[in-house]
Design goal:
0% strand, Four Helix Bundle (Hemerythrin (Met), subunit A), mainly alpha
Length: 101
């Protein structure tokens, strides 16, 4: 019975709405990179920008939701800044090696 409670507790920490938004932000990194690197016209760059806006919104709302609904978790405290840095790093690398013409 204790094992089941531990598993349920862990699932509650892993699968909170703010943490799911962080997972989505991490999954958007390769989407952004692919769209940006393979961009051949302005429309493609706008699509990459749209992905960045969605990532920004997930970052904005994960913090708001976590604080507002008391869903702050230790996992979220670690994952959120890691996801932020990964996204910032990928955008910086893309801009360094493939700037729009």
């Amino acid at each position: 019975m204790t094992q089941q409670k531990n598993t349920q507790s862990l699932n509650k920490e892993i699968f909170t709405v703010p943490n799911i938004l962080v997972y989505i932000r991490v999954l958007l990194i390769p989407v952004f990179v692919y769209i940006y690197v393979h961009a051949s016209c302005d429309k493609d760059y706008y699509m990459a920008l749209a992905v960045m806006v969605v990532a920004f919104l997930t970052d904005f709302f994960d913090g708001k939701i976590a604080r507002r609904f008391n869903m702050v978790t230790d996992l979220g405290k670690v994952l959120d800044p890691i996801a932020d840095k990964l996204y910032q790093f990928s955008v910086a690398i893309c801009l360094m090696f493939n700037s729009p013409k």
